[in-house]
């Protein structure tokens, strides 16, 4: 009797084990899929090439319809250049580990919400959150100078080919990958700018009597400072602040405005003075209380941060207060400069609020580009 030829799944499994090593390829049975852990961009490209030959779909987000799942946890290398203030990090490293690695060189990525620290760099760029931002630095998704990715049928690619000033680099092709959730290509690494801690730093805050007063103060501080916004600026529900600083007495009020100012002493003093003037009706909070939320100890639990997020396009103070009052759970508002001024509201339940959607022509163009880059729909 002639033995049956091996199945396509078995052939793919053998091919992957030969290219990546048996220790880094596993076959799961319920549900049936193959999980591989590539160690560099070349192995990611080899895995996608094997999937393409086998006619199976692949995913780095564990999509249900994929037979091949790429676990990028081994892509965790970090290289820091203290002269250019740039770091290149693998997509599989967590933001928390990356922040610790660059802090060992006396540098920083800038402020990040505690709930984002367990996320990998690849996840933060492929599926960015509005709260991963700073009024002075902008959104994390907009900061990469260069990304390395693997595109279906194209192999490894650096976008742009070399880091260059935006106006000299032509179309910003890396934006095709950032925010694509791994459906256009798989991010392997990214080069990010770093910041040095300023010579002066202040963590200050005020408890405002009402949500409306706090929203108005936040709006006035953001617009008053313009392009030299503070490193971090948030409105926080009193309950969250109380939980973060357990044992510390908290004055009564409707919302707390917290500010992190870093830089030259004159700039820090100006930011603090403007915030104090806009919060004249509030009660100033002790620095230790502000630090408990803005600068928690490393490894502090992120469970206090609400889970849902919604970006709001430059709302008025009244509109922002209405959004906050519509929340059915704890809430945080992060002030962010994106194309002028916008605000991100993070709340436990914002499903009933309208969400901005891209215009239809932009959506169609993006779909056409995705189809051109991945005509076989290999990635999902």
General form: elongated
CATH level-1 class of the largest domain? Alpha Beta
- CATH superfamily (homologous) name of the largest domain: FAD-linked oxidase, cap domain/gating helix
SS-based class:
alpha+beta
The count of DSSP E runs of length 2 or more, i.e. the number of strands, is 18
What is the rounded distance between the termini? 40 Å
Following the backbone from N to C, one meets helices and strands in this order, namely HEEHEEEEHHEEEEEEHEHEHEHEHEEH
- Percent helix among the residues? 25-40%
What is the CATH topology assignment of the largest domain? Vanillyl-alcohol Oxidase, Chain A, domain 3
Parts with pLDDT < 50 across at least 5 consecutive residues:
1-6, 351-356
Count of discrete domains: 3
Question: Can you tell me about this structure?
Answer:
Helix 1 packs antiparallel against helix 2, helix 5 (211-225) runs antiparallel to helix 7 and helix 5 crosses helix 9. The strands form four sheets. The protein has a seven-stranded antiparallel beta sheet with strand order 15-12-14-13-17-18-16, with helices on both faces. Mean pLDDT is 84; it is low at 1-6 and 351-356. It is an alpha+beta fold and 380 residues long. Strand 9 and strand 10 form a beta hairpin. The chain is built from ten helices and 18 strands. 29% of the residues lie in helices and 23% in strands. It has three domains: 8-70, Uridine Diphospho-n-acetylenolpyruvylglucosamine Reductase, domain 2; 78-196, Uridine Diphospho-n-acetylenolpyruvylglucosamine Reductase, domain 3 (2-Layer Sandwich), CATH 3.30.465.10; 200-347, Vanillyl-alcohol Oxidase, Chain A, domain 3.
